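Researcher: I'd like a structural prediction for the single chain below. Treat it as a standalone chain; there are no partners to consider.
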Amino acid sequence: MRTVGVEEELLLVDPETGEPRALSAAVLARAEQDEADQDVFEKELHDQMLEFATHPQTDMESLRAELGRCRKEAARHAGEIGCTVAALATSPLPVSPAVGVGRRYQWMAQEYGIATQEQLVLGCHVHVNVDSDEEGVAVVDRVRPWLSVLAALSANSPFWQGKDSGYHSYRSRVWQRWPSAGPTELFGSAERYHRRVAEMVATGTILDDGMIYFDARLSRRYPTVEIRVADVCLHADTAVLLATLARGLVETAAREWRADVPPVDHSVSLLRLAGWRAARSGLSGELLHPATMRRMPAEAVVRSLLDHVAEALEETGDLERARETCAALLRGGTGAQVQRDLLERTGSLRDVVTECVRHTQE
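Model: Treating it as a single chain, here is the predicted structure.
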């Protein structure tokens, strides 16, 4: 059974005002004093962000438990210096992001200007192990059409600088400003994948292969395919759903590759449109169906995703739970809808943030 790991980026906020706080260095220092949390939490581009990564897991209940523990530990360490954490993919309240002082971050600020300054966006990355780079690239080629559906399920960033963006995932639109971000063409082999990465680095437009921000890529540190399209999810159960579906997609793609089933050859242009539609609509309207690239109700597209990975999920015992969580999201809405409902009820973006702090630790 393939292992799965999840990386989450959390927003550091004031527990009373809901405003983002640039305190990641202090939170990391407290975490380093705790032997159990050494090497769990990491700094990110902006000082208002805190990242953690789970261990590789095969059992989704174990993954859910570790996600919950890491979120609670992040809140505990943050609380010791007067802030807390919220699983929000953008700040609902206005913020002036503070770029970290490291050499890498300063290079990015110099090279990309305001695009770096505005990248206070928080994502969820899922790692699924693969047997080789050749298998990994075959997977990357075959999961491309389905990634926009994962993005829609995770949508959790409706607000930007104190205003409703009109999107369910505005984070993804901001993320697209990086020159290497987004969907990719078909690679066909590991050799072509690595050659393309080397060519991109050689342009000098990106610093190194760590700045290859493809929607799905080979991890530079682990023997995994890393799927990078999702907002950080308000609820840990949604993050587990993403991990479940990602593993199902990887396993299904690998089986297709071994059976000589060719990947669907959608153009990057169409994949970008599918990503835009997912960001705009979330689960509240229509999505582009991965097979036809035509608009269909979100519920039907999610059902097609579940059908596509059903065999793989049935074998790992995850199918019914995935169906139940998808149904709950379609009924109750994604994190973006929860945030909008909170604003309608309370009339206060501050209350949106403070209530989402509670959701983060459930």
